[in-house]
Write a structure and sequence with these properties.
heterodimer, A: alpha+beta, six-stranded mixed β-sheet, four-stranded antiparallel β-sheet, 6 helices, elongated, B: Ribosomal Protein S5, domain 2, five-stranded mixed β-sheet, 30% helix
C-alpha cells in the first residue's frame, strides 16, 4: 500500500521560503540557473571484481552501479533473449532518513523506470546473450546503490547504471557435451550495447520548473517529470512523480530542458567510457570540492 | 514464444475492430458496495476493476497522522485470476510502483486539508486485466471518491495511448500492449487539462509524443463524460427513491 509520506526529512520553513523567493527571481539557493545541471562525474571500472561498474556523482549525490553476469534459463516467453535485471537500493549510509530493509516504493520506482528506459529500445542487445536457445542465456544483474542522497537520485542511478553497462566485460562460456555451461571469467568480450540512454529529471515547484533538483528542492517539489532520452534523440521513457499536476506548457519546457541536458550527459558518458579511475580519487573529489581530471587510458 | 499478430489490418482497423482513435466500450457503475463509504466499478472492454474508498477515517497506526491534512493510502492490486497465468496474490514490484503513481495521481486533486488527522483509503482490485488497468483504476477511484462525498477539484480520468505497427492508438488492450512499440498511460483533470499521471514505456519521437498526448486528451474527455453520467445515474435513482 502506498501512503502519503509522513516521516521524511523536515526542511526548515525559512529555507523553504528562501528557495521559493529565489525561484521567483529565476535563481536557486545553490546559485544555479533554473535549467542548469550540477557538476557531473562519471567514473567507470571502480570495482574490478564486478564484470562492469561505475560511480556517478551529480553534485554530491553519489550512486555506484555494479554489473554481475551469470548463466540461467531464459523466461519462457522470450527463449531467444538474455535476461537483464535492474535493482536499486537506498542504503542507510546515504541519508539519515533511510532505514535498512527491502527496497521501498521509491527504490522500486527508480529501478523500474531505469529498466523501462533500457528495455524497449534494447539498449543492451539481449538477443546476443543467448548461449543455448530456450535453455541457457546470460543473466545480467545491474545493481545500483545510492551512497549519498542529495536529490535527483534517479538521474544519478541511470548514469551510473549506463556507465557500468558500457564498461561491462562479458565472460566467455564453455559448453560440454551434456550441455553444462561453465563461465570462464578470464576471457571476455564487451557487453553488446546498442544505445546509450540518460534520464533528465525536471521538478516543478509552484509554477517554476527546475532541472536536476537537489535534496532541499526535492523535498518541496509539487511534481517531477523524468524524461529518458537515447543517443539517437528519441524518448525512451517518461515518469511523472509527486502529487502536483503538469500542464502542456510545463511539458513543453521540460522537454526542451531535457533535450539540452541529455546531450551534455551523453557527451560525458561518451568521453568517460574509456577512462580509468580509482575509487578513492573520485570519492576524494567531494572533500576537494572539485572535479578530477581523469587520465584517458 | 507467441507470434506477433498483425495489429492494424489493411482497412486501418485494430485487432478488435476499433479505429485507432476509438475507446473500448465503457461501463461505469457508482455505489456498488455496501460497506465502503464510496465505490465504483469500471470496464474498459474486457478490463474490469472495482474500487472502494473508506474515509476520511481515523488512522491506525497513529504516528502516520499529519496535523494539517489527510493522508492518502492507496493499494492497486490484481486478483490472482485476473491474468492468463495465475498471478501470485502477494504484491509485485509493479503493483507497488503503480500504487504509488496512482496515489500521486489522485492526491493532488483531493482537498486533503479539509480533513486533518485522518486517512482516506483507496483500494483498487483488478478483476480482469486486458490492458489499461491502472488508468481504469484511476477513473474508478475518482468516481468512488466522489461517491464517498470527498471534495475534489475535479474528477480524474485516465487512458493509455499506444503505438502499434507504427500507428498511435487510443486505449490499448493487452495484445496491443504486449506487441506494440510504446505504451503511454495518462490521467488528467479534464476540466483543467492538467496532467496528474504520465508514464511511458517504449520508444517515441518527440512529435509522436505530442500527438499521443493529444489522443489521450480526446479519450479522457470521452471518459469524463461517461463518469459524470454514471454519477448522475446513481444520484438521480437516489432522488427518485427519496421522493417516493
Amino acid at each position: 500500500m502506498s501512503i502519503t509520506p509522513t516521516s521524511g526529512r523536515i526542511i526548515p520553513r525559512l529555507r523553504k521560503d528562501t528557495i521559493l523567493s529565489l525561484l521567483e527571481k529565476d535563481t536557486r539557493l545553490d546559485g544555479r540557473r533554473l535549467d542548469e545541471y550540477r557538476e557531473v562525474i562519471v567514473a567507470p571500472g571502480v570495482i574490478p571484481k564486478a564484470e562492469g561498474s561505475a560511480l556517478a556523482k551529480i553534485g554530491s549525490t553519489t550512486a555506484i552501479a555494479g554489473v554481475k553476469v551469470g548463466v540461467g534459463t531464459p523466461f519462457p516467453d522470450t527463449p531467444d533473449e538474455g535476461v537483464l535485471t535492474v535493482n536499486v537500493e537506498f542504503v542507510p549510509l546515504a541519508s539519515p532518513t533511510l532505514e535498512p530493509g527491502p527496497p521501498d516504493e521509491n527504490a522500486i520506482e527508480i529501478a523500474r523506470v531505469i529498466d523501462r528506459c533500457l528495455r524497449e529500445i534494447r539498449a543492451v542487445d539481449i538477443g546476443k546473450l543467448v548461449i543455448i536457445p530456450g535453455e541457457k542465456v546470460y543473466i545480467i544483474w545491474l545493481d545500483v546503490y545510492i551512497l549519498d542522497h542529495d536529490g535527483n537520485v534517479l538521474d544519478a542511478s541511470m548514469l551510473a547504471g549506463m556507465a557500468a553497462l558500457l564498461n561491462t566485460k562479458l565472460p566467455k562460456v564453455e559448453i560440454d557435451e551434456k550441455k553444462n555451461v561453465k563461465i570462464v571469467r578470464e576471457e571476455t568480450t564487451p557487453l553488446p550495447v546498442n544505445h546509450k540512454v540518460v534520464t533528465v529529471s525536471i521538478a516543478k515547484i509552484g509554477s517554476k520548473l527546475i532541472v536536476d533538483p537537489n535534496l532541499d528542492e526535492d523535498d518541496i517539489i509539487d511534481a517531477k517529470i523524468t524524461i529518458g532520452i537515447s543517443d539517437d534523440g528519441r524518448i525512451v521513457g517518461l515518469q511523472k512523480a509527486g502529487s502536483g499536476v503538469l500542464t502542456y506548457d510545463d511539458l513543453k519546457l521540460a522537454m526542451k530542458y531535457a533535450k539540452e541536458n541529455a546531450a551534455k550527459l551523453l557527451k560525458i558518458l561518451e568521453e568517460k567510457s574509456n577512462t580509468k579511475v580509482d575509487l578513492d580519487d573520485v570519492l576524494k573529489s567531494y572533500i576537494e570540492g572539485k572535479i578530477l581530471k581523469h587520465q584517458v587510458v | 514464444m507467441k507470434e506477433k499478430p498483425k495489429l492494424i489490418d489493411e482497412n486501418g482497423r485494430r485487432i478488435d475492430g476499433r479505429r485507432p482513435d476509438e475507446l473500448r466500450p465503457l461501463r461505469m457503475e457508482v455505489g456498488v458496495l455496501k460497506n465502503a463509504d464510496g465505490s465504483a466499478y469500471v470496464e474498459y472492454g474486457n478490463t474490469k476493476v472495482i474500487v472502494a474508498v473508506y474515509g476520511p477515517r481515523e488512522i491506525h497506526p497513529k504516528h502516520l497522522t499529519l496535523p494539517d491534512r489527510a493522508i492518502i493510502r492507496c493499494r492497486y492490486h490484481m486478483t490472482s485470476f485476473s491474468t492468463t497465468e495465475r498471478k501470485s496474490p502477494a504484491p509485485t514490484r509493479r503493483e507497488i510502483e503503480l500504487s504509488k503513481v496512482i496515489r500521486e495521481a489522485l492526491e493532488g486533486v483531493i482537498f486533503t486539508e479539509l480533513y486533518p488527522r485522518t486517512s482516506i483509503d483507496i483500494f483498487i482490485e483488478v478483476l480482469q486485466a486486458d490492458g489499461g488497468t491502472r488508468t481504469a483504476g484511476i477513473t474508478a477511484a475518482s468516481l468512488a471518491l466522489a461517491d464517498a462525498g470527498i471534495p475534489m477539484k475535479d474528477l480524474v480520468a485516465g487512458v493509455a495511448v499506444g503505438k502499434i505497427d507504427g500507428v498511435l492508438v487510443l486505449d490499448i488492450n493487452e495484445v496491443e500492449d504486449e506487441f506494440g512499440e510504446a505504451d503511454l498511460p495518462v490521467a488528467m483533470m479534464p476540466s483543467f487539462k492538467e496532467i496528474t499521471l504520465l508514464q511511458m514505456n517504449g520508444v517515441l519521437s518527440e512529435d509522436e509524443f505530442w500527438e499521443a498526448l493529444k489522443l489521450a486528451e480526446k479519450g479522457v474527455m470521452e471518459i469524463y463524460k461517461a463518469q459524470k453520467e454514471a454519477l448522475l445515474n446513481k444520484y438521480s435513482r437516489v432522488k427518485v427513491e427519496v421522493e417516493e
